[in-house]
Amino acid sequence: MNITSNLKEISQCQKLLEIEVPHHRVESKKEKIIKQYINRVKIKGFRPGKAPKDLIERLYKEEIKNDLINELIPEIINEVFKEKKINPLNSPVVKEINYEHGKPLTFSVLFEILPDFDVENYKGIEVEKKKVDVKNKEIDNYLKSLQERFAEFVPSKRKIVEKGDYVIIEIKGKYLNENKELSPEKLTVIAGHSSNEPVLNENLIGMKINEEKSFIINFPNNYNDSKLAGKKVEYHIKVLSIKERKLPEVNDDFAKSVGEYNNLNELKKDIKEKIKEEKERIQREEMVEKILEKISKKTNFEVPKTLVDAQIMAMVRREEFNRLNEDQRKELFAKLKPEAEKRVKHYLILRKIAKKENIEVKEEEIEEEIKKLAEINNVPYSVMKREMEENDRKEDLKNNLLIRKTVDFLLKEAIIKGRVQ
Question: Are 249 and 258 in contact (CB under 8 A)?
Fold first, then answer.
């Protein structure tokens, strides 16, 4: 008698598999587990491996049963999935386990799979393309950001801390209600920066050189530093020196200092080209988004929860998520769910179109992309390739290239209005 199974459809993605394992298969596994116990356990009056089987079975009845279920069920699930060519998206949830001595083992498995759907009328979609212009103000703003990036911090003639100053402070702290102090240290902080504790900014701005202040910070229980989480700490700071930001003058010398430019005009020309390229990239993304939205509206299928949850986690920072309590996490998931569902649906549509149009990624295309990544990251090709293979990132790279090629196909097949030659 073989394993029997019955697949039930809960929804387009969610399935329930009812499985029955024949008695002889259960007993065979059980015998192996009992032998392991005989060879492993020590029982007074018996040499190792010589204790009677019935005694072992009686003494370790529950342990043997648990091991049987925990070892046999995953084996059976893998066998049935392989036989039925089921590729679950998530770890199957085992339910309704029924096991009695001398009878078959029965259980149910709940899991998700990719939805079965078709995509039609995805060629010849109309989308607008506007002319890309770069204004002088945009170039000036870019130059200003370069100024700030290449600014120097020089000793300030001022003796009072202002927002944006680089301040060297001496800081000491102690846990209140605990007989414990934090090690004193010298720190360089940017006064008023958003990464500082608000209480620190409030006290630091307006302080004079050699002035000292004390203040208390109550750290929340979910604070990202476990040593401070939930603690009440009194800090004592002293301002040692103040440095203010000095912006370089925008001229030919400045252009030469920020890159391989002979003069300011060359720098401005390059900035204009970079802004234009970025605007064209954004416009392309917007065109692709509009094409996919039009396809999505006439393509109905269930979006797998497993993929939506994974997309939400990709949209948030792990450290920020870990600081949230259960209610805050639920609120965050509810807020991000619509966008995550849209992204997953678009991804699945692109995969389906790639399959219908026989769009594939060749090995040489993957190798070429690895070379580009190696160049961007300034590492040897061999190192980048090895890292890709060791971290199983090659398949992800292949998938990204497939999506990129499919997007290129949709744009090529689209009717683009207002196209600028």
Answer: no
